[in-house]
């Protein structure tokens, strides 16, 4: 069974007016977010802004920060840093998984899997 557009959180399904009504914000606020490249929704073939569920969640996050008094420039930087942090976390998880795979295969190949503690060189440091 194929995925339906509303199953995809990145599918651009909602108009500017719908999002403004959902989040109880002014349409001009949403346009300003796009102008300042804080949230950039996709455009329909007619040029109208179309928001995905993911875009809407970001707009909610931005609205909370704006309500706390942050400027759009500061909010854009925070969003950028959050994306970078998420990317670094993904990279760290991948590196840890790869390291674990290498350690497991190294132990299996060396026959040292149950021989005790080892240092980085693989030397046994058991008491």
Kindly list the characteristics that best describe this protein.
127 residues; mainly alpha; 3-stranded antiparallel beta sheet; 4 helices; 3 strands; elongated
Condensed summary:
By secondary structure, the protein is mainly α.
Please characterize this protein's 3D structure:
- This protein is mainly alpha-helical.
- 56% of the residues lie in helices and 6% in strands.
- It is built from four helices and three strands; from the N terminus they run E-H-H-E-E-H-H.
- A three-stranded antiparallel β-sheet has the order 1-3-2.
- The radius of gyration is 24 Å and the shape is elongated.
- The protein starts with 13 loop residues before the first strand and ends in a 17-residue tail after the last helix.
- The mean pLDDT is 87.
List the helices and strands and how they pair.
Blueprint: E1 14-15, H1 16-23, H2 27-35, E2 42-43, E3 49-51, H3 53-67, H4 72-110
Antiparallel strand pairs: 1-3, 2-3
């Amino acid at each position: 069974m194929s995925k339906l557009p509303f199953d995809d959180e990145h599918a651009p399904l909602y108009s500017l007016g719908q999002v403004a009504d959902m989040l109880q914000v002014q349409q001009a606020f949403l346009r300003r977010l796009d102008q300042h490249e804080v949230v950039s929704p996709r455009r329909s073939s007619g040029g109208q802004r179309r928001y995905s569920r993911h875009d809407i969640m970001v707009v909610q996050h931005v609205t909370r920060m704006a309500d706390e008094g942050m400027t759009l420039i500061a909010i854009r930087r925070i969003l950028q840093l959050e994306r970078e942090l998420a990317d670094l976390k993904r990279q760290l998880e991948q590196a840890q998984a790869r390291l674990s795979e290498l350690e497991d295969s190294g132990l299996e190949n060396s026959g040292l899997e149950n021989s005790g503690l080892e240092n980085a060189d693989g030397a046994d440091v058991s008491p």
